[in-house]
Specification:
The protein has about 375 residues and is α+β, with helices and mostly antiparallel strands. Helices cover about 50% and strands about 20% of the residues. It is built from 11 helices and 12 strands. The chain has a 5-stranded antiparallel sheet, sandwiched between helices. A 5-stranded mixed sheet has the order 7-9-10-12-11. The chain has a two-stranded antiparallel ribbon with strand order 6-8.
């Protein structure tokens, strides 16, 4: 039984059916060129165009630029060969707003089985699309949060394992270092006492050997101090201190070299700090700079301040730090020295952060920058 016969049996006509369906479906009919020949009320309501404005127009009047030319080409290729097309389309209304419609386009044939019209039946799915987009954004946000959380957990786990290993190493190393400290101190003291007398009796080659011996003692003492500082977890004891006084004391621990000039600042500032620990930081940074110069060059220590921070910079004229080493420079056990422990800069970073400050490094020239709160 056909649609018309069924409607007559129910005592209905097509206009009655259209009134019922108009509240639920957006309907339009076009000719074979795609020009609109019929629209229902629902179509006018959602598109914001009047019936007169739509009739004779092509559906391109509603184009939103959401879909690619290929999308429309595939749609047109489907219906022009007599097949029904199903899909979702984003359209632009007259007022510039957008809406989504779930669409079915059906070719209508004449008696000779030639296409005479296309009927498009649509339902408004704009709200569903908004919900879908919102859910997609929430899902993407959750994925990002999960990735960030997993990364944090991985980093924390890695830090925990590293801390446990370093604690074990620190305990063992501190025992060894402590046992070596006393005999090394005696060697260092006697070497200093004998230096004037011995140097007067040595030729140039033997003097060089003597200086190498002293430098070796110096290196051993520094390594032991690094290990002991790393193993200690003493709290900082702050007091008002002159930075220049701290800096001059730190120079007592700097390896001497005739080919290297160390320039200190003339200005001074009062710091609320643990002077012994800041002294250790400065001696470590300056010694690193001296080591990088390999016997020839210049080290510049500068000091500046504002209302909140004091900025200390240690620059050297050396070859710089390799790019692949920059990210690892403050990691425990990382060193580029033949005699280094890889603990010096780690200790410096810990001390600076205990004071509420920051330490960083840049190249060209190699510059370590410390910022400490006044």
């Amino acid at each position: 039984m056909g649609l018309t016969s069924s409607l007559k049996k129910l005592n209905l006509d097509l206009s009655d059916l259209e009134d019922v369906l108009a509240d639920h479906f957006i309907a339009a009919v076009t000719d074979t060129e795609g020009n609109i020949v019929y629209v229902n009320k629902k179509f006018c309501e959602i598109s914001k165009y009047s019936e007169d404005e739509l009739l004779g127009q092509n559906h391109r009047i509603l184009k939103s630029e959401e879909h690619s030319p290929q999308f429309y080409a595939e749609l047109w290729n489907t219906i022009t060969v007599g097949k029904t097309w199903h899909g979702e389309i984003k359209n632009r209304a007259k007022d510039g707003s957008f809406y989504w419609v779930k669409t079915t386009i059906i070719p209508i044939f004449d008696n000779d089985k030639n296409i005479k019209n296309y009927v498009a039946i649509r339902t408004d799915i704009t709200n569903e699309k908004k919900i879908q987009d919102r859910l997609l954004k929430i899902e993407q946000q959750l994925i990002r949060q999960n990735i960030a959380l997993a990364t944090k957990v991985e980093l924390k786990s890695s830090d925990l394992i590293k801390s446990e290993r370093l604690a074990t190493i620190g305990t063992m190393a501190s025992r060894v270092a402590h046992d070596l400290k006393n005999p090394l101190t005696i060697m260092h003291t006697y070497a200093d006492m004998l230096t004037p007398e011995i140097l007067s009796k040595l030729d140039s080659k033997d003097k060089e050997k003597w200086f190498r011996l002293q430098n070796s003692i110096f290196d051993m003492n520094r390594i032991i101090e690094d290990v002991l500082d790393f193993a200690r977890t003493t709290e900082i004891k702050k007091k008002k201190s002159s930075f220049l006084s701290i800096l001059r004391l730190s120079m007592n621990h700097i390896r001497s070299s005739y080919g290297i000039v160390i320039n200190l600042p003339e200005n001074d500032v009062s710091l609320n700090c643990d002077p012994r620990k800041i002294e250790g930081v400065m001696s470590n940074l300056i010694n690193n700079a001296v080591y990088a110069l390999d016997g020839q060059g210049e080290v510049n220590v500068s000091l500046s301040s504002d209302s909140e921070f004091i900025t200390i910079q240690v620059k050297d004229s050396g070859p710089g730090i390799l790019d692949e080493h920059m990210e690892k420079i403050f990691e425990p056990m990382f060193t580029t020295k033949n005699t280094g422990t890889g603990l010096g800069l780690v200790i410096c970073k810990s001390i600076v952060e205990q004071h509420g400050g920051t330490i960083s490094v840049t190249n060209d020239p190699t510059t370590f920058t410390i910022k400490l709160p006044l």
